[in-house]
């Protein structure tokens, strides 16, 4: 039997973090058992001061009925001075239990004679309990080391993790460890699709930005690189904040809230970054409108970031408000678009400044936000979209599609403008 480094006092004592994680697991196990009556009564009996005898009889019954119900939380009580056992006594009994466990294992594996079985029956029930607890403690320690956890039902989430009541099963519990959160990227749960949609987009935009910015100057001028960088930065930050938020928000309420704000700020940054190349090339030779609209979008974007930092903004009841705020930020682009159409005509806008692509991009963002706000299709099929095809994944896909369409659109505008040559005279005029 392997002995953990934490067993130097004879009883494996998990750290606070391990204890929280393991207790979560035990809660999960208990919740998954159809009838929790025995567990409830057990917990109650363990929570009040009692003699070691009454504790032993309760525990013995439980071990016989369902060894699964022995939890780490229960074992901690044994180390409490109230239970009537000193630390040395607990240690001694635990060691006895482990020795017996080894003996029992050998006994069972060799299929020995009945004489030893009779001796086992005669052992003190308290030793049996400690024996079972020791085994469970070792298993629990192994689970913690391996980042083991089970998906849980929505009803068993803490309130701060409850966001969408139409997703019933497959939620991660609170994980309390960044390592476990990042390992969960490779497991299947309600956030798997949300994480990977934007993680892959994040990687894709890093690749595109790296390729674009590494072009020789003779091919792409530094001005183009600077203007496009605003868009790349917005896209990479938005997608990066998003997948990291969906990965770590189950760590703790404080961490979840912080990264939720970064996630919202990312949307505002993507919108602002998207406007920069579009305004730059659409009003290439008109410094006044270009500056005015850039100031407008950065002011509105800054306002959205401020609103995002408000704690209540992330609450589920403000879902539609959030969608509305970011759609409004994007739709502020209607003002410069109208300006361009009035000044240059509709077909000029369509043919020369990729207005069609920009309208498609706006449609994708708005439709995605609409799906996000109404939570379709899980609203119609609760429990059927827990892992795949839930509204948030669809919203993520639309954001991703919108970003790629925008990149294509601004590339076309840039190509068109750059073929027209300089506009020194127009600027002077
Ligand atoms: Zn998201």
TrEMBL record:
SUPFAM superfamilies named among the record's database cross-references: MFS general substrate transporter
Polar residues composition bias: residue spans: 14-44
One GO molecular-function entry: metal ion binding
InterPro entries to which the protein is assigned, alphabetical: AdipoR/HlyIII-related, MFS_trans_sf
Cell compartments where the protein resides: Membrane
Organism name: Lingula anatina
Keyword set, alphabetical order: Membrane, Metal-binding, Receptor, Transmembrane, Transmembrane helix, Zinc
Compositional bias segments (type: Basic and acidic residues): 88-110
Signal sequence range: none
Family affiliation: Belongs to the ADIPOR family.
BP terms from Gene Ontology: adiponectin-activated signaling pathway
TM region positions: 195-214, 226-250, 262-280, 292-311, 323-342, 354-374
Gene label: LOC106164050
Residue spans of biased composition, Acidic residues class: 111-122
PANTHER family per the UniProt record, alphabetical: ADIPONECTIN RECEPTOR PROTEIN, ADIPOR/PROGESTIN RECEPTOR-RELATED
Broad class of where this protein is predominantly found: membrane
Composition-biased stretches (Low complexity): 45-57
UniProt xrefs under Pfam families: HlyIII
Protein name: Adiponectin receptor protein 2
Record GO cellular component, one term: plasma membrane
Membrane topology value: Multi-pass membrane protein
Residues given in the record as Zn(2+) binding sites: 246, 392, 396
Region Disordered: start-end pairs: 1-122
């Amino acid at each position: 039997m392997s002995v953990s480094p934490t067993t130097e006092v004879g009883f494996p004592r998990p750290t606070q973090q391990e204890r929280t994680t393991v207790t979560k697991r035990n809660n999960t196990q208990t919740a998954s058992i159809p009838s929790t009556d025995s567990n409830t009564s057990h917990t109650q009996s363990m929570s009040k001061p009692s003699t070691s005898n009454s504790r032993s009889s309760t525990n013995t019954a439980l071990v016989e009925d369902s060894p699964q119900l022995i939890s780490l939380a229960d074992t901690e009580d044994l180390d409490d001075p109230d239970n009537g056992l000193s630390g040395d006594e607990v240690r001694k009994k635990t060691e006895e239990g482990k020795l017996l466990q080894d003996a029992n294992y050998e006994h069972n594996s060799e299929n020995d004679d009945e004489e030893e079985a009779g001796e086992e029956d005669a052992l003190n029930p308290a030793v049996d309990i400690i024996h079972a607890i020791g085994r469970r403690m070792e298993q629990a320690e192994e689970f913690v080391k391996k980042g083991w956890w089970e998906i849980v039902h929505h009803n068993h989430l803490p309130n701060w993790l409850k966001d969408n009541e139409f997703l019933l099963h497959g939620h991660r519990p609170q994980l309390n460890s960044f390592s476990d959160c990042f390992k969960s990227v490779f497991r299947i749960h309600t956030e798997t699709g949300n994480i990977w949609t934007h993680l892959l987009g994040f990687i894709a935009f890093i690749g595109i930005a790296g390729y674009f910015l590494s072009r020789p100057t003779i091919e792409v001028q530094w001005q183009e690189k600077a203007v496009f960088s605003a868009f790349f930065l917005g896209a990479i930050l938005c997608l990066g904040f998003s997948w990291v938020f969906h990965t770590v928000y189950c760590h703790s309420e404080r961490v979840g809230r912080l990264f939720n704000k970064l996630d919202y700020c990312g949307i505002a940054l993507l919108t602002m970054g998207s406007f920069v190349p579009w305004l730059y090339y659409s009003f290439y030779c008109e410094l006044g409108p270009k500056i005015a609209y850039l100031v407008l979008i950065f002011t509105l974007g800054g306002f959205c970031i401020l609103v995002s930092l408000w704690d209540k903004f992330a609450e589920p009841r403000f879902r539609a408000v959030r969608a509305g705020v970011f759609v409004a930020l994007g739709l502020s682009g209607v003002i410069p678009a109208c300006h361009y159409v009035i000044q240059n005509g509709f077909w000029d806008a369509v043919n020369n400044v990729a207005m069609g692509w920009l309208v498609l991009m706006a449609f994708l963002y708005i439709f995605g936000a609409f799906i996000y706000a109404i939570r379709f299709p899980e609203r119609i099929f609760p429990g059927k979209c827990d892992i795949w095809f839930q509204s948030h994944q669809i919203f993520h896909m639309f954001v991703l599609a919108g970003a790629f369409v925008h990149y294509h659109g601004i590339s076309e505008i840039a190509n068109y403008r750059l073929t027209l040559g300089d506009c020194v005279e127009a600027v002077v005029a």
